[in-house]
Amino acid sequence: TMDQVKDIGEYFKNHLLKSRHRGAFELAYAGFVKLTEVFSRSNNEELHKLPQQWLYNVLEEIKCSDPSSKLCVTRRSAGIPFYIQALLASEPKKGKASLLKMTMKSLISLALPSDIPSSTISQVHALNILRALFKDTRLGENIIPYVADGMQAAILGFTSSIWAVRNSSTLLFSTLITRIFGVKRGKDESSKKNRMTGREFFTRFPSLYPFLLSQLEQITTTADSKTKEMKLHPGLFLLLLV
Questions:
Q1: 31 with 82: CB under 8 angstroms?
Q2: What is the pLDDT of residue 32?
Q3: What is the pLDDT of the chain when averaged over all its residues?
Q4: pLDDT at 129 over 80
Q5: Can you give the residue ranges of the DUF2428 domain (predicted)?
Q6: Which has the least CB within 10 A, 8, 161, 164, 208?
Q7: Residue 223 pairs with which residues in a beta bridge?
Q8: Is residue 69's pLDDT more than 70?
């Protein structure tokens, strides 16, 4: 029955969103993917829309960053990225990827720095989920249009005074570098297989040119008002890696 199907979905949802043990949520993830695939092929309109509804609900819960929320913020957000990956996997690959667009737009907005203190938990979750999505090979080329925005979120997050944000930003940055340049295949540090010219890089990701330039300009024009010495900027490390 419909109620039984929803109960099964809630069972997987609770395990993925509340479990902290990797083995537990990895097993739940495998079963949940199968369930969402069934929903995507279902002719029942209510079942077909369930993944979209669940995805919207979890994004809203992440956005609210309610202190009473049982979402796990430690262990790289535990099973939350798996839950969202499974829901996105239910979307037809040859479609308009509307669920992916909605998800990426929401996550990138949350991953960027905010003046609201309570948004830190949301930011950490967003950075961790983005990392998982950029690593997911099943999303293929559909994820590439969001690489530049993800890179900006990672670099800006690295300048945060909060360690959890910096840590998640560094992990996201590392994933994006691999996504852009590929997995290192040779022993040589400057392998031709894992590099591209500046022209090619900025042709693929044009919005990164003004962003990186503005970040470098901010760093080079900032000096201590008393000593006139340059201040240390953590983000410079990531900028030089790019």
A1: no
A2: 86
A3: 81
A4: yes
A5: 2-164
A6: 161
A7: 230
A8: no
The average pLDDT across 130-159 equals: 91
Q: d(Cα 158, Cα 170) in Å, to the nearest integer? A: 7
Residue 121's pLDDT band (cuts 50, 70, 90): confident
More confident residue, 119 or 192: 119
Cα 170 to Cα 165: distance, rounded to the nearest angstrom: 9
| Residue 8, pLDDT score | 85
Length of the chain: 242
How far is residue 240's CA from residue 242's CA, in Å, rounded to a whole number?
Answer: 5
Mean pLDDT (whole number) for 11-30: 78
DSSP annotation string for the chain: -HHHHHHHHHHHHHHHHH---HHHHHHHHHHHHHHHHHHHH-S-HHHHTHHHHHHHHHHHHHHHT-TT-----SGGGTTHHHHHHHHHHTS-TTS--HHHHHHHHHHHHHHS--S-GGGHHHHHHHHHHHHHHHH-GGGGGGGGGGHHHHHHHHHHHTT-SSHHHHHHHHHHHHHHHHHHH----SSSTT-GGG---HHHHHHHSTTHHHHHHHHHHHHHT-B-TTT-PBPP-THHHHHHH-
What is the C-alpha separation between 125 and 167, in angstroms, rounded? 12
Neighbours of 112 (CB within 10 A): 16
Amino acid at 179: R
Instruction: Tell me what pLDDT residue 188 has.
Output: 57
